[in-house]
Amino acid sequence: MLPSGIHFKNHAEELRLLRTGPQRIGFALLLLALAAFPFVANTYLIGLAITVAITVIAVAGLQVTVGMAGLLNLGQSAFVGVGAFTAAALYAHYDVPMLLAIPLAGLAAGAVSIVFSLPAIRIRGLYLALTTIAAQVVFPIVVLRLPTGWFGGSAGIGIDRVQAFGIALETPAAFYGVAVCVMIVMLLIGFNLQRSHVGLAFRAIRDNDIASSVLGVELGKYKIMAFFAGAVFAGVAGGLYAFYIRYVTTDQFTIWLSIWYLGMLIVGGLGGPLGAILGTFAVTVLQEAIHWGGNRAMGAMPQISGGIIFSVTNIVLGAAIITMLIREPHGLAHRWNVLKSAYRIWPYPRA
Amino acid sequence: MHRSIQSKLGGMLAAGAFILLSATAPSARAQTNYNVSISLDYSGPFAAVMDSWYGGQQSVFDWWNETRGKTLGVKLNVKTYDMRYDASQVARTWPQLLADDKPIVFLGMGTPDLVSLMKRLPADKVPMIMGTAMVAPLWTANGWHFSFRPTYSQEFAGLFSYLQSRLPEKRALRIGTLSTQGIPGYVDQVAGVVKLAQTYPDRFVIANSQWVDNTPINVTSQVRDMLATKPDLVLVGTNTAQVVATVKALKELGAKVPVVTSSHNGLTEVAKAVPMADLEGSYSVFGFAPSVDPSVTAAQIFEKYNKTKGTWGLTAAQTSAQALLATAAIERAIATVGPTKLTGQAVYDALEGPAFGPEHFQGLLKSVQFTKEAPFPTTNLSVKALTVKDGKFVAVSNDWMPVPELAKW
C-alpha cells in the first residue's frame, strides 16, 4: 500500500525500488549508518557484521530458489563451499584479483548447480529436496578426490594475504567495507530479479507450475535458472567467506549450515530479499543473545553446563521456526509490511 | 650503668642480626605480567568436556605462577575465550583478542582455530600450541602453529608396531579401518595407515576398509564384511558414535576383535555408552601418557590447583601437556631474552630450539623436538596407550612405544 498522495506519472517512477521521499531518506540514513558502523563498533561486532553480510547473501540466494521459484533446496551450503573453494583456488594458485575471483566463484557455483537442478524439471517438493541433499553429500567427497593441486584435497586451501586494488584488507574494518558493498550489490540484484520478467516466471512456477507452463512459461529453463541464480548468490557468499576466514576445508560447509540458512529464510519470510535480511539478522541476534546469556548464567549458576547452551541454541532456532510458521507464516517481512501499512493509514484502522 | 651498656649492646646485636637476616633472605622479585590466551568451547559441541579441558590448563598455569614463575619474575595471566568451536567465531574474535591481550602464546582447541589462524599467525607473531593430534595436510613448513602430538596415523602406528611385535606368530598385523568419507581429517587417518602398510608390508597389511556415515546408527553389515577378511583389530579414529556403533556390531556378531581409538573418541568416553565388558581388550592410543599411568605427576598438580568442576582423566592430561609445553617454551624464552622482554617471537624461537626433555612434562611426554619442516615432532616419536583389562582402564605399557618412521603422505 502506498502512502496517501503518492501518484506515479509514468512507468519509470513506478518501477523505482525507493518510491517515496521518506524511503529515499531512510535508505540514505541506512547507508550512512552502515558506513559509520566500523568507527563506533568494536572489532568483534565488526566481525559479526561481516559474518551477517556473508550469510545474508547466501540466504538471499536461497530466497530466489525457494521463495521466488518454490523449489526446495537443502544444499545451499554446498554451493557456498563450491564458491569458497573456487575463489580460494583462483586467488592462491592463479593470482586472480579478489574482486574478480568472487564473481567467478559465483558463476562456478551456478554452473555446478545446473547438474543438481536437472531433476527439478521432473520432480518437486520433498523429492527435489533429496536431490539437493545429494549436492551436500557429494561436494566434500568430490573435493577430496580431485587432484590436490586443484583444491588442496583434504588439506584445503589457505590464503596468505588478502588485498584489493593493492590495499591490504588486514583489518576487520577494511574487510567490512568490501563485504557490505558486495552484499548491497547482491541485494539490489535480488530485488530487481523479483521485479523482472524472470522473477515473474519464477513466481508463476511457484504458484502453479502446470498452469504457468500452459501460459507459456518454459518450466525446465526457468527452474534451472532459479537454481543457477540462487547458487550464484551462494558462490559469491562463499568467495567472501574464503577471503574472510582465509582457509577453506570441506567440513566448513555442512548440511547443518544449509538447514540454518533455510531456518533463517523461514523466520524472515520467503516472499522477498527483505525476508533474507530480517531472518538472518533475527537469528544471529538470537544466537548471540543465547551465547551471551548462557555464559553469564554459567558464571552465576555453576550447575549449568555449557553443553546446555549448545543444545538450547538449536532448540531455540527450531522453536523460532515453528513459532513463525504458526503465528506468522509469511515471516518477519510480512509483519514489517503490516506495520508499514498500518502506519501509512493511521489513524484509520486496517481493513 | 653496667646494665644500660648491656642493654645497648644487646639491642645493637639484635639490630645487626636483623640486618644480616634481611640481607640474606630471598627478596620478593618484581614480576612482569604476560598474557596467555586460550580458545575454549563453552557453548558449542565440546562444551560438556570444557571443565576438564580447561582444568588441565588452568591448574598448570596456576602451579607455574606459584612456583617457577615467582623465581623467574614472570606471571602468566590466562585469558579464555569461548570460540564455540566455530571458525567464524575465531576469525571475528581474534583481532580484538590480539589488540587487547597481546598474548605471548595462544592455546588452540581444534580445527576451527587452525583453519582461522594458520595464515594470520606469522604476521601477528603469536605462536599457537595445540593439544590435538595433527593430520598430514597440516604437515607444512614454517608455520606458527605447533602440536606436541604427531599425526593420528603416526600415533596409531606406534600401537600397531607394539601389537605386531607381540603376535604369537611372525606375520603382518591385519588392520581393518572404519571411517567416513567427506571429512578430510578422517580420510587422512586412513590414508596414513595405508601408507604405513605400504612402507612396512611385512609388518602391516590393510585387511579391509569400510566407509560409514559420520554418526551411524548401525554398522553391523559393514563390520560383518570386514570380519570376513579376518582383521586383528578395527581402527576407528573418528568419533565416539562410530566407536559405539562398532563395539555394538562386534558384540552382535559375536566377534572378539579389539577396537583401536584415539584420545578424542577414547575408551573413557565410549564407556559411558557401552558396558566395560564390551570394551575388554580395546585400545586408545595417543602421544602422551594416559591419566592412569603412575609415572604421571601432573595428576598431583591438577589435584592441588584445579579450580574447575573438571576431573583428572584423558582430557585433562592432554591439556595439561599442552600447557606444560607452553610453560617450557616460556621458560626457555625467559632464559634467552630475559623476564621483561618476552614476546610471541621469543616464545616461537624457543619452540624451534633444541628438544624439550621429559623433565618439563611431569611424566606426560617423553620429549618434544620441533623443526621448521613440520608443526609437530616428526622424529623419535613414541606413544602410550590405554586398554581395558578385567573391567578397568590400565596402561598398555609403562614404557613408551616407539613409532616406526613414516614419511609424509
What does this structure look like?
The complex is a heterodimer of chains A (351) and B (409). By secondary structure, chain A is mainly α. Chain A has helices at residues 11-15, 21-40, 43-68, 76-94, 98-117, 126-145, 148-151, 172-195, 197-207, 209-214, 219-245, 255-268, 273-300, 306-327, 331-345, and strands spanning 157-158, 163-164, 167-168, 247-248. Chain A has a domain at 41-254. In chain A, helix 8 (172-195) crosses helix 9 and helix 13 (273-300) crosses helix 15. Chain B folds into two domains: 32-150 and 295-378, Rossmann fold, CATH 3.40.50.2300; 153-286 and 384-402, Response regulator (Rossmann fold), CATH 3.40.50.2300. In chain B, strands 6, 7, 8, 9, 10, 11, 12 and 13 form an eight-stranded mixed beta sheet that branches. Chain B has a five-stranded parallel beta sheet with strand order 2-1-3-4-5. Chain B is globular, with a radius of gyration of 25 Å. Chain B is of the alpha/beta class and 409 residues long. Chain B contains 13 helices and 13 strands. Classes of the chains: A mainly alpha (351), B alpha/beta (409). Chain A binds chain B through residues 42-44, 46-48, 50-51, 137, 140-141, 144, 152-156, 158-161, 170-172, 244-252, 290-291, 294-295, 298, 302, 305-310, 313, and chain B through 41-45, 47-48, 50-51, 82, 84, 87-88, 91-93, 95-96, 99, 111, 114-116, 118-120, 123, 135-138, 181-185, 187-188, 191, 309.
